[in-house]
Amino acid sequence: MSLPPEKASELKQLIQQQLSKMDVHGKIREILAETIREELAPDQQHLSTEDLIKALRRRGIIDDVMKELNFVTDNVDQELPSSPKQPAGFDKQSTLKKTTIDPTRRYLYLQVLGGRAFLEHLQEPEPSPGQVCSTFTLCLHYRNQRFRSKPVPCACEPDFHDGFLLEVHRENLGDGTRMADSTTMLSISDPIHMVLIKTDIFGETTLVASYFLEWRSVLGSENGMSSLTVELMGVGTESKVSVGILNVKLEMYPPLNQTLSQEVVNTQLALERQKTAEKERLFLVYAKQWWREYLQIRPSHNSRLVKIFAQDENGINRPVCSYVKPLRAGRLLDTPRQAARFVNVLGYERAPVIGGGGKQEQWCTLLAFLCRNKGDCEDHANLLCSLLLGYGLEAFVCVGTKAKGVPHAWVMTCGTDGTITFWESLTGHRYIHKPINPDEPPLAEQPKPLHPYRTIGCVFNHQMFLGNCQPSDAVETCIFDLNDESKWKPMSEEAIKSVCAPGATTSLPPFPPLCASTIDASVTSNEIEMQLRLLVSEHRKDLGLTTVWEDQLSYLLSPALASYEFERTTSISSGNEEFQDAIRRAVPDGHTFKGFPIHFVYRNARRAFATCLRSPFCEEIICCRGDQVRLAVRVRVFTYPESACAVWIMFACKYRSVL
Predict the structure, then answer these.
(1) How far apart are CA 562 and CA 6, in angstroms?
(2) Taking a C-beta distance cutoff of 8 angstroms, is the pair 633, 536 a contact?
(3) Quick one: DSSP state of residue 500?
(4) What is the distance between the alpha carbons of residues 367 and 143, in angstroms, rounded to a whole number?
């Protein structure tokens, strides 16, 4: 295969740099001198090229060079967004290991070289080898590429030593074969989003810090390298408190032929900040004016949940429309209902608050939500709305209240035939909205609402924001004709676009792609099942009971678990007849069968067993007494993107009925 001249020269340059780094020329000189001294007679001082190559091969020099120069011919640009590029590893000398490299592309090599001043872990003892301990994991996102560091034990000075190879490219440049130069890269304003996650010994995750790294300072460095000290701040109520410091080194690869002056870089960054601040100021002025007009319609509007701005994990107020964007899941999720199931199995956790005083508000950026694998109802609703928009539906996030006036967020889709469907992102349930007409006579039959929602203050997506200005904000009487400005007061779409459209401001965090699950469903199912068998046997032993497992009965429970998950995803029940027929055949006359299915979104067997024992039905099966008691347990793990999973467990027993 022939290469264009410019690509051939780039390749030669890369190889030459690699040979220089490995000091191959010095090694060749040493071997040449040694070969002449040891292998040639004093009267024969002429050495052929073949002799030299043999000597180099014998000493392993050629093999070493070929290992280091391991180029992969596939073009990284052809990877799908739904399969984010994995971290490319480097060794300490910054030499390339096996990784996907395109010699015509520009890369940024980011190294994290340890941390310090994580004072919360000052008293942490040094973990013994093999001991389970809490860990830190660093997650990165840059221009549709996702990375994750190796977990390191939590400590005051965590031992981070990871390198990440980030491709610095720009879509629609016109000439895809040209390598991005300094000026082109200076115009790429996307930051590197870094999220630090703590995982405790039980597998519970906590969001420690979320940081946006401005990487373009490296473009003004003389040697194309830059060392930074990144101070990580806490999240939520601790967003003004430092949690630790990371030592970061940035390096352009291949090295820049021409660097920019630091003054040019600083001027560009200052101009971008100034432009962003002006756009945000103008939107704030407009939002205040819109709110004044909204209050003049009816004084009672002041008590409605009309949410124009929301604080992210760093305590920064951002327009709510910026938390939603059409998100395509590639081949990871096939249908909108499957997307709803995926969002549902992500854990639910209210933002932590120190002391009393009610709910702490915290709308997480998408990367922080996905890396932590759990979040509040607003995080779930924003993600589900983004996925439904990606499937081409007209979707909105609704902000209002449910029973007892508790603030809540859910998702609404508007069908082309006018059908309004509510999607509860925490459960995956769907409800068709049928409004009640308050002007109907008292005896007229009215539809009974099945949904749990009480009031609604506003709806929004990535392009629209509408405040509810109907006489009553009760959901059951609400008319969702969003084009009727007498019922819904809209914000200017142009104003929203000025601060929420992709690339509109440099302060907006880009949306990361979804990652495929790394969990092996079969292996995990087996592991949890074996752990549960052990826990059940120990529990029965404490009660003075023996335990006999029947593998065939356990296997017969599988179709039921698959049917339950299928029903959760599609709202269609199937396969129940075959399951019942198989159980009838497996249970002899005069015997009784009992089964108890239960569903979890975590993989901790001990925690699941403790929960099961709190159910009297399950406790009755596990502690079953009688003649010829046979026990069965079946676990089925269903995996979803981001390593989220639905875990179905079914305990069963059969025994001879003795009257």
Answers:
(1) 56
(2) yes
(3) H
(4) 12
β-sheet bridge partners, residue 90: 96
Q: In whole angstroms, what separates CA 176 from the centre of its chain?
A: 29
**CA gap 220, 649 in Å, rounded:** 57
Sign of CA dihedral 5, 10, 11, 13: positive
The pLDDT tens digits of the residues spanning 164-217 come to 999 987 454 445 556 778 888 898 889 999 999 999 888 889 999 999 999 999
What is the distance between the alpha carbons of residues 324 and 496, in angstroms, rounded to a whole number?
Answer: 12
d(CA 456, CA 167): 44
Sign of CA dihedral 638, 641, 643, 645: negative
Mean pLDDT value across residues 283-309: 93
Instruction: Give me the torsion for CA of 620, 626, 628, 631, rounded to 10°.
Output: 10
Q: What is the mean pLDDT of residues 343-353?
A: 85
Q: How far, in Å, CA of 37 to CA of 52, rounded?
A: 13
Degrees, nearest 5: CA angle 199-204-209: 50
Give 129-173 as a DSSP string. TT----EEEEEEEETTEEEEPPPEE--SS---EEEEEEE---TT-
Provide the 3-class DSSP secondary structure of residue 496.
helix
- Alpha-carbon gap, residue 185 to 165, rounded angstroms: 16
Predicted local distance difference test score (pLDDT) of residue 174: 45
pLDDT at 87: 44
Task: Outline where DSSP puts E strands in 355-423.
Answer: 374-375, 395-402, 407-414, 420-423
Tokens 């596990």 sit at which residue?
622
The DSSP-derived string for 218-270 is GGG-TTSEEEEEEEEE--GGGTTSEEEEEEEEEEEESPPSSPPPHHHHHHHHH
Looking at the predicted structure, is the pLDDT value of residue 267 above 80? yes
Percent share of the chain, pLDDT over 70: 82
